[in-house]
Amino acid sequence: MKKIIISVLFIGSALSLWAYGPTGHRAVSAIAQEHLNCRAKRAIKKLLGDENLVLVSTYGDDIKSDKAYDFSYTWHYVNMKDGETYLQSIKNPKGDLVTAFNHCVATLKDKSSSVEDKRFCLKILVHLVGDAHQPLHIGRAEDRGGNDIKVKWFGRKSNLHRVWDENMISSYRMSYSELAENMPKISRKVRKEWQKGDMLTWTEEMRTTTAMVYASAEQDEDLGYRYMYDYFETLRHQLHKAGIRLAGVLNDIF
């Protein structure tokens, strides 16, 4: 009996470790759903059927376990050197966030695209807009977007990328719906301002935040309450902005 209890506890802790990973993407999609116009809602329903934006928001990561989708692995990020713009950077021949975003938008707007291609691109697009607002998805190639900057999170091994992907969100202990519902109210003017531009614009905009994140921690530093206090509002702002922009993109497409 003791062995069974221990196993259940271990499995439970493992599940909760992985379960928090998608929370940010789901929050972005929940925010977006609240700002879709009627035409976009109908078009999305037609493509996704019983699924919705929240449910498909993790699709871009889910398919990483299927080798048939290896071509999309590099779509989740952009690597640039410090002080370099996207246009100045050496482009990944396999594609990146900017090229993948443009491909998905073009496919969804093209009346000759198959339903299957449109459904795939919609699912990927939802995920990519979220990725584009995580500062270390616009990072440096040499440290793999902060993955090689090893830190501790409340004493446990982690890395700077993971801190921004999931550790801070997990420590905040809100569900995706609670995060979405408790975003500050913004004016129509601010919403329109956030929605201006495209992925290239937003990638360049993110560079300032990315630089701040890189400067926020040192190798092997033990991060915790103070780091949450200093940076969680920045993360929350990025989730909010991503959701508003995702809605704007989908409203424009449909």
UniProtKB/TrEMBL annotation:
MF term (GO), any: metal ion binding
Keyword entries, A-Z: Disulfide bond, Endonuclease, Glycoprotein, Hydrolase, Metal-binding, Nuclease, Signal
CDD domains per record: S1-P1_nuclease
The organism's place on the tree of life at top rank: Bacteria
GO BP terms: DNA catabolic process
InterPro entries the UniProt entry points to: PLipase_C/P1_nuclease_dom_sf (IPR008947), S1/P1nuclease (IPR003154)
Signal peptide: 1-19
Annotated protein name in UniProt: S1/P1 nuclease
Organism: Balneicella halophila
